Amino acid sequence: TIENVNNLGAKAVDKFAELMKERTNGNFIIETYHASQLGDAMAQLDQVKSGTIQAFRCSISWLGGYVGDVAIVEFPYMFKTAEEAEKVIMGPTMSAVNDRLAQEHGIRWVTASWSRLPRHILTKNPVTKLADLKGVKLRVPDSKTYIESFKAMGVATTIVAFNETYLALQQGLVDGAENHVESLYNMKWYEVAKNLALTGHAQDVTGFMVNDAWWQSVPEEYKQIFIDTDKEVNEWFKGELAKASDDYINKMKAEGVTVYEVDVSEFQNAVMPSVAYAIENEGFWAKGLVDNILAELAQ
């Protein structure tokens, strides 16, 4: 993983590994490496693709670097809840995209769960309304969906590596960053940016990205144990995360962070669905993808 060892996502992977070993009588061993020990997200995905490593646990949206259609799962305000996102990611439209990913790149996701907390905006100056974002240099991931969406909100988007964001904030290269409160706290970004706007702009669903050839070689019995164990750990993860959310916010408040409730609809209307359709019209993802997902959500 790329996650800090203190993040629940890293702890969940370790728990998953222990259960897999136990439930297969030691026949399915998972070695875990956290905090980008094996490289950044794209480096690890390339290793999964080549078969150097068998699996990488991360946001499913990272696979948009191979097939642009996948990136839609991280599109700001596409989903209201993590449950909506998980449903669509494992639904018919995205399952077809997953098969294409496996055929063209030899990599696929086999789970969509352990959804992180909604993503919010942490800045040096207060953001209480959409207009406050105008011209703000905000660190965003190197993702077209984030870049175009935040540009539509008036942001001067700035690409900075995840593990270099603290220094960028400290040195004034950026005015703020966005992420879920777990990372905002564990990466200590709140030390150099003291205003948190609860924008809830994205649902961050993670999953196991696997080398498809390796996955096909796994005995069906172990595949089923893998999927069932993922579901069980997901229930534990959700319970722990719900408890942690308020805890992280309260800890940041204790360190001098001011938290702002905002009119989310104002931010949402700036990007949905106009920016999603604009990206589609550029050919970044398949024609009709936005409508197909909105139709699934309406069911």
The main β sheet shows up as:
6 strands, mixed
Helix segment count? Answer: 12
- Distance linking N and C termini: 34 Å
Quick one: overall form?
globular
The percentage of residues in β strands lies in 5-15%
Q: What does this entry look like structurally?
A:
This protein is α/β, with parallel strands linked by helices. The protein has 12 helices and 9 strands. It has helices at residues 8-23, 41-50, 82-89, 92-105, 144-152, 165-171, 181-186, 212-217, 220-254, 264-271, 274-281, 289-298; strands spanning 55-59, 107-109, 119-123, 137-140, 156-159, 176-180, 195-198, 206-211, 258-261. A 6-stranded mixed β-sheet has the order 5-4-6-3-7-9, sandwiched between helices. It has a 3-stranded antiparallel β-sheet with strand order 1-8-2. Helix 1 (8-23) runs antiparallel to helix 9. It is globular, with a radius of gyration of 19 Å.
What can be said about this structure in brief?
By secondary structure, the protein is an alpha/beta fold. The chain has helices at residues 8-23, 41-50, 82-89, 92-105, 144-152, 165-171, 181-186, 212-217, 220-254, 264-271, 274-281, 289-298; strands at residues 55-59, 107-109, 119-123, 137-140, 156-159, 176-180, 195-198, 206-211, 258-261.
Kindly list the characteristics that best describe this protein.
9 strands, 12 helices, 299 residues, three-stranded antiparallel sheet, alpha/beta, six-stranded mixed sheet
Write the layout of secondary structure elements.
Layout: H1 8-23, H2 41-50, E1 55-59, H3 82-89, H4 92-105, E2 107-109, E3 119-123, E4 137-140, H5 144-152, E5 156-159, H6 165-171, E6 176-180, H7 181-186, E7 195-198, E8 206-211, H8 212-217, H9 220-254, E9 258-261, H10 264-271, H11 274-281, H12 289-298
Parallel strand pairs: 4-5, 4-6, 7-9
Antiparallel strand pairs: 1-8, 2-8, 3-6, 3-7
